[in-house]
Structure formats: C-alpha cells, structure tokens
C-alpha cells in the first residue's frame, strides 16, 4: 500500500504542477486528484496551498467519503465535487478543476462549448455541456457536493457519456475535466481551454457559425478512440499523447 500511495502522490503532485506549465491557473485556483479504486483512496491537492509549496508528501489522502487518511493539511475545498464524480462514474480515475479564462467565459455566459471543428472532435465526441446554475438551497446545503450532483444530472438528463465527453463547464463557475488518470484529465483540461478559445474566435468572426457535421466528428473521434482506433503509432512513443 505504501508504495502504491507513493506513486499516486507523485503523479498527483506532478499533475497539479503541470497546471502552471499549461497556463491553466492563477494563484491557487485549481486542483487535481486521482483515485485508487482498489485501495478506495483519493489523493488530492491541499486547499489554498501555493503551487511552489507543493510536494508529493503534502498531497492529501482521503477515503471515498472525504475522511482524511494521511496528511496534515486540509484537502481541496472542491473535494466533495471530485467525490461525487468518482462515485457516479466508476470508469474515471483522475479529475481536474481550474478557473481557466476561456472555459470560464463559456460557463459565465451559460453556453455549451459547441462542437465546431476537428480540434474538438479529436477528444470530445460532442459539444461540451454547460450545467444549470445551482439553486440557493443547493449552495446553502452543500455547495461543492451539489456541484458534483449537477454535473452528473446534466450528463444523465442529456444522455451524454462522460467517457466520450470528458469535461463540462459548471454555470457561473468553471471547467471540470476527467480521464482514466490525472495525466489524461490534464490533457482534457488543456484541450477544453484551447477549444473554448478557438470557439470564441469563431463566434466573433461569424456568430452564426453552426455545429460541424457528424461525419467529421465520427472520423476524428473514432480513429483516435473507437474500437478500431488506428491514429498515430502502434507503440506509444509520443510523451504527451494519450
Ligand atoms: O472556486 C474555488 C474557490 O472559490 C476553488 O476552485 C479554488 O479555486 C481552489 O480551491 P482549493 O483547491 O485551493 O481549495
């Protein structure tokens, strides 16, 4: 167990640090977690701690109910949202939350990030949904937990698959992305932010720009992620590829 936790602490630390490299955060406005489903433990960034003060050792280990198992620091305030997503979607293994500017723009506007082209379709098999706003009661009751509930509700109501659309923007708040592990969730956070930016430009040039055709989405998404995926190399030789 100790060795496994050492590895996961290191991965979660590196993923958190990479948020800065990818220019996805300012100050401490973001967090990354990863779950080990065999151990039933989640490792997450400590709340409000500056990125230059992070170490693998000060990542916080909690159980699936949020009880701190290892660590002296409080876990991220967004932990209850991460927990709701891990509970609802057993296939996911890592989660990223940021307040990245372009994604927050769509969240604050209350719009889905529409599928407009191939950059989007390479990683998201459909428009990236924007949730409804939380009610006053939900915010008062259990704000971060209800944030997770509203994300799951959005995917359920629209019959969306979180494994093929690995991200969301929460109305008036910002983006959450996920993946099989923290590294893949980071990859999706970077793509989501870039697509949000590209789409803003597109809409500025032509505010009537329409969704791109389904057959282009099928070609791009399925050749990378479909049952008969063939894109790239047989061996994974590209460090940043998924
Ligand atoms: O939106 C918020 C706080 O309002 C959070 O997402 C913070 O930006 C990050 O919180 P910690 O992970 O440091 O608790």
From TrEMBL:
SUPFAM superfamilies: AraD/HMP-PK domain-like (SSF53639). It catalyses: L-ribulose 5-phosphate = D-xylulose 5-phosphate. Residues 10-200 form the Class II aldolase/adducin N-terminal domain. Pathway: Carbohydrate degradation; L-arabinose degradation via L-ribulose; D-xylulose 5-phosphate from L-arabinose (bacterial route): step 3/3. Its cofactor is Zn(2+). GO terms for cellular component: cytosol. It is an enzyme of class 5 (isomerase). Its EC number is 5.1.3.4. GO terms for molecular function: aldehyde-lyase activity; L-ribulose-phosphate 4-epimerase activity; metal ion binding. It holds the Pfam family Aldolase_II. InterPro entries: Aldolase_class_II_sugar_metab, Aldolase_II/adducin_N, Aldolase_II/adducin_N_sf. Keywords: Arabinose catabolism, Carbohydrate metabolism, Isomerase, Metal-binding, Zinc. GO terms for biological process: arabinose catabolic process. Belongs to the aldolase class II family. AraD/FucA subfamily. Involved in the degradation of L-arabinose. Catalyzes the interconversion of L-ribulose 5-phosphate (LRu5P) and D-xylulose 5-phosphate (D-Xu5P) via a retroaldol/aldol mechanism (carbon-carbon bond cleavage analogous to a class II aldolase reaction). This is L-ribulose-5-phosphate 4-epimerase. It comes from Mammaliicoccus stepanovicii.
């Amino acid at each position: 167990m100790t060795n496994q936790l050492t590895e996961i602490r290191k991965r979660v630390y590196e993923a958190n640090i990479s948020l800065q490299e990818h220019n996805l955060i300012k100050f401490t406005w973001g967090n990354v977690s990863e779950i080990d489903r065999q151990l039933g433990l989640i490792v997450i960034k400590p709340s409000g701690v500056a990125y230059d003060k992070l170490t693998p050792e000060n990542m916080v280990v909690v159980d699936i109910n949020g009880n701190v198992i290892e660590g002296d620091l409080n876990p991220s305030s967004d932990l209850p949202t991460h927990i709701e997503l891990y509970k609802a979607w057993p296939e996911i293994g890592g989660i990223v939350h940021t307040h990245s500017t372009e994604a927050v723009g769509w969240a604050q506007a209350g719009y889905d990030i529409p599928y407009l082209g191939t950059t989007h379709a390479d990683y998201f098999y459909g428009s990236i949904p924007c949730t409804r706003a939380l009610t006053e009661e939900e915010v008062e009751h259990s704000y971060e937990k209800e944030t997770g509930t509203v994300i799951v509700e959005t995917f359920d109501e629209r019959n969306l698959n979180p494994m093929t659309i690995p991200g969301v923007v929460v109305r008036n708040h910002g983006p959450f992305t996920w993946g099989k592990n923290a590294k893949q969730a980071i990859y999706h956070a970077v793509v989501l932010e870039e697509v949000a930016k590209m789409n803003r430009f597109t809409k500025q040039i032509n505010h009537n720009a329409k969704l791109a055709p389904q057959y282009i989405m099928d070609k791009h998404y399925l050749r990378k992620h479909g049952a008969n995926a063939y894109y790239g190399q047989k061996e994974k030789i590209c460090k940043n590829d998924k």
